[in-house]
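Repro:
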Amino acid sequence: MRAYGRRKVLALAVGLLAGAVACSGTPSGTPTPQAAGVTRAPVSASPTPSPSPTAPPITPEEAREVFTAFTASDNVLRAAAARGYSTLKLEGDLTRDGQKELTAAAFTASGNRPPQRVWGEPELLVPRFRPEEKAPWFSVLVPRDGRPTFLVFARSGARWYLGSAAEVQRGAGLPEVEVDAQGYATLVPSDDKSVLIGPKLMAPLHATVAEAGKKGVAADLLSDGPYTTDIAARIAEDRSVWKRGGYFYNPIVSASEYPVYALRTKDGGAFVQYTLTRNITVEPRIGSAVSDGIPVPDTARWAIKGDRLKSSLKMSEIHQYATSIPPASSKSRAIVIAHDGGMIRAFGK
């Protein structure tokens, strides 16, 4: 086993429980050095064979081990946090990209008491990479707290991290990903021309619809819904409310710098996972807004002390999505089927 084996998972869970939960006395605020060491570099009880030079960098069997190791570690760390131990640093070692920022915000906003997760049986979607691939990844469709959720795990160096998570919206159809006889999914190139929207264009086009709605240049390519035109409608309404109160309100939705992941579907389309950001600026401009200051929204109270700011409020959000894109020959539009995200920071003066 090249990634995580059953013994490694057990060693991790036992080490963390011993260091963070089972120790006597009052919690010290951080797990013991032994626990931290186990988390960063779990040790197998037996030597791990070297991979074949012609083997893919990740197989479906190994992907299952990675998923199992992550959920075991995540469960232990969240349980330890609920008992008063500071586990955010260790939890951060399991995540990257948008998930790292969202996880940090979830811990901070909850007073280091993030919600526990309940995981179901995973369906692995593992692309077939060439042996020399340096940045392999794979997707997982799994019940998380009873809701089907798409995850992306990506490797950086020798370690695997959770990089993306998006919960399937109610009533959405799941994509039928193309899988070969050996259980591998097919990658879709970032500039693929056989699909309605090439994977590298999905995030920026989604961002334009989220900002401009049906007036956006990509409105005819993306289906209306809660994560496209409805977002634009809420932005317009929020801008109007702030303006009536005498405030300048400027939300900017953008494609993030994080990777885009795309798999071929059975109909010749693509299933794409990606991340958007939204950065919001609020400033008082006229009338009583200048003297009264800026009311801090409830969603930002965890990050800002006090209920008003004098001259500026800035809020940043991360939103992760999964979208089904039809073939270029289809008359259908792309549809956003999954989302997760929220505020990651807020500050002002």
